[in-house]
C-alpha cells in the first residue's frame, strides 16, 4: 500500500512513521524547503502527545530537544498569584511535559521518517486532491501530480485537502488575539521559576514565559485587538512590534517589559484562529488529521498533542482497513471526534478569558482564583493530559 501524506509539520511525519513501520510505502509532500522552516515559536507537548511520539519510537530521538515543563503558574497584573495548572502526570518512565521549538521538532521528526525509508518531496505545494475508485491523486503547483492508494491531509489549519473533501468546509475563526513570541538570553534576574510557564493576565495583554534548561527564557504575548492586516504587518518592523509589546507590558507589575526589551522576537503579529468543527473528515480515499480538522486556540496548549495522537490512531486504523480506506476514515472519525472537539471548545473558553471584556470587567482576579482552585484542576484536566494513545489502539484479535 502507498500513502501520500500532505504536510511535514507535526502530525504528518508521525503518521508517515506509523505506516512505514507497518510496511507501507510513504511519501510526504511539504511545501517549504528544509532550510525555510526556521521561524516559529515554542509549544509544550503534554504527556498525552508524548505517548504518541513514544508509540512510533520517536520520543527518545527528540527528547534532548525538549525542555522539561512542570506546569503553569498564573498571576494577575499586580503579581498576585491566581493559581496553578499542572502539565499532566508524567509518562510511566517519568518523562514530564516537554517544550519544543516547533520548527525544530517538525524538522527532526521528518528527518527520522526519512531515515526509516519515508520519501519526502519538498518545495511542493499541493493545490488540490481527488479520489477515484482505485487511487487518490494530488496536484502540485509545478503542474505535476502524484497518485497513491490513500491521501491523508496533515496540512494544517488552511488545509487544501479539507477543501478537496468538502468545498463547503469551514475555515479558521479569528479569536480576537494577536500572538507574538520570542526568546531572551542573558537575563538571569527575571525572578521566574525554571521549567514552569508563568502566565500573567495583564491589564492590556496576556503574557507567558518559560525559563528553559539552557538558561534562555522563552516568552509570548497575546494582545486582544482586531486582526493585523497584511499591510500593517508589511510596514511594521520587528523592533517596532517589540517596543509595542514593552509598552503593553509596562502597565503590569511583572518582569515582561524588561524581558521583552532585551529579547529577540521570533513570531510577530500572528492572528490567532481556531477551527471548532469540520463536518466532513473524509471522502473516498481522502482523509485528514491534526489542525486540518480541529485546530484549537493556542491557549489550549493541545494542538500539537492532538495532531500526534491523531497520527498514531490514523496509522493503526489505515493499516487495519488497508483494503478499505473509507472504513478506516470512518472508524477514525468515531474514535476521535468527541475528544478533539471538546478540547477545541475548552481552548476557545481559555482564549476568551484573555480578551479585554473578560479581562477587565467580567472575570475579576477573585473569580479566577476560585476557577483555578476548584474548576481548572489537575484532576479536572486528567481526561486531556492523562490520555495514553496505546490504550486506544484497536487490540489485535
Ligand atoms: C503560537 C502558537 C502556539 C501554540 N502552542 C501550542 C502548545 O503549547 N501546545 C500544543 O500542543 N500546540 C500548540 N500550538 C498548535 C500547534 O502548533 C498545532 O496544533 C500543530 O502544529 C498542528 O500540527 P499539524 O501537523 O496538524 O499541522 P502543522 O504543524 O501546521 O503542519 C502543517 C504542514 O503542512 C504544510 N502544508 C500546508 N499546506 C500545504 C500544501 N498545500 N502543500 C504542501 N504542504 C502544505 C505546512 O507547511 C506545514 O509544514 C500552537 C500554535 C501556535 C500558532
UniProtKB/TrEMBL annotation:
Specify whether Oxidoreductase is a keyword of the entry: yes
Provide the taxonomic classification: Bacteria, Bacillati, Actinomycetota, Actinomycetes, Mycobacteriales
Keyword Electron transport applies = no
The protein depicted here goes by the name 2-polyprenyl-6-methoxyphenol hydroxylase
Q: Which UniProt keywords apply?
A: Monooxygenase, Oxidoreductase
Q: Residues in domain FAD-binding? A: 2-344
- List where the protein spans the membrane: none
Amino acid at each position: 500500500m502507498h500513502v501520500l501524506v500532505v504536510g511535514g509539520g507535526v502530525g504528518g511525519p508521525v503518521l508517515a512513521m506509523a505506516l512505514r513501520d507497518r510496511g507501507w510505502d510513504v511519501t510526504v509532500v511539504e511545501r517549504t524547503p528544509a532550510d525555510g522552516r526556521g521561524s516559529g515559536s515554542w509549544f509544550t507537548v503534554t504527556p498525552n502527545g508524548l505517548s504518541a511520539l513514544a508509540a512510533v519510537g520517536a520520543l527518545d530521538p527528540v527528547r534532548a530537544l525538549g525542555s522539561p515543563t512542570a506546569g503553569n503558574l498564573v498571576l494577575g497584573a499586580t503579581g498576585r498569584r491566581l493559581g496553578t495548572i499542572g502539565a499532566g502526570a508524567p509518562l510511566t518512565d517519568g518523562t514530564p511535559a516537554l517544550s519544543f521549538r516547533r520548527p525544530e521538532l517538525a524538522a527532526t521528526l521528518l528527518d527520522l521518517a526519512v531515515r526509516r525509508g519515508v520519501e519526502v518531496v519538498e518545495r511542493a505545494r499541493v493545490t488540490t486532491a481527488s479520489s477515484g475508485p482505485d487511487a487518490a491523486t494530488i496536484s502540485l503547483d509545478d503542474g505535476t501530480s502524484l497518485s497513491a492508494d490513500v491521501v491523508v491531509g496533515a496540512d494544517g489549519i488552511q488545509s487544501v485537502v479539507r477543501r478537496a473533501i468538502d468545498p463547503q468546509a469551514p475555515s479558521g475563526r479569528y479569536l480576537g488575539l494577536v500572538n507574538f513570541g520570542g526568546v531572551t538570553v542573558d537575563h538571569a534576574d527575571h525572578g521566574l521559576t525554571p521549567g514552569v510557564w508563568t502566565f500573567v493576565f495583564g491589564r492590556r495583554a496576556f503574557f507567558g514565559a518559560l525559563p528553559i534548561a539552557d538558561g534562555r527564557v522563552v516568552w509570548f504575548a497575546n494582545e486582544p485587538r482586531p486582526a493585523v492586516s497584511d499591510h500593517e504587518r508589511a510596514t511594521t518592523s520587528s523592533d517596532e512590534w517589540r517596543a509595542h509589546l514593552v509598552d503593553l507590558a509596562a502597565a503590569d507589575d511583572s518582569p515582561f517589559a524588561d524581558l521583552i526589551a532585551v529579547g529577540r522576537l521570533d513570531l510577530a503579529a500572528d492572528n490567532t484562529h481556531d477551527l471548532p468543527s469540520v463536518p466532513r473528515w473524509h471522502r473516498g480515499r481522502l482523509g485528514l488529521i491534526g489542525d486540518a480538522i480541529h485546530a484549537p486556540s493556542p491557549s489550549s496548549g493541545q494542538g500539537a498533542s492532538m495532531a500526534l495522537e491523531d497520527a498514531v490512531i490514523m496509522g493503526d486504523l489505515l493499516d487495519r482497513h488497508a483494503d478499505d480506506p473509507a472504513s478506516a476514515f470512518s472508524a477514525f472519525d468515531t474514535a476521535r471526534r468527541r475528544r478533539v472537539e471538546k478540547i477545541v471548545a475548552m481552548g476557545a473558553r481559555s482564549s476568551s478569558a484573555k480578551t479585554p471584556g473578560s479581562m477587565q470587567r467580567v472575570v475579576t482576579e477573585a473569580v479566577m482564583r476560585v476557577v483555578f482552585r476548584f474548576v481548572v484542576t489537575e484532576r479536572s484536566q486528567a481526561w486531556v493530559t492523562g490520555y495514553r494513545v496505546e490504550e486506544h489502539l484497536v487490540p489485535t484479535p
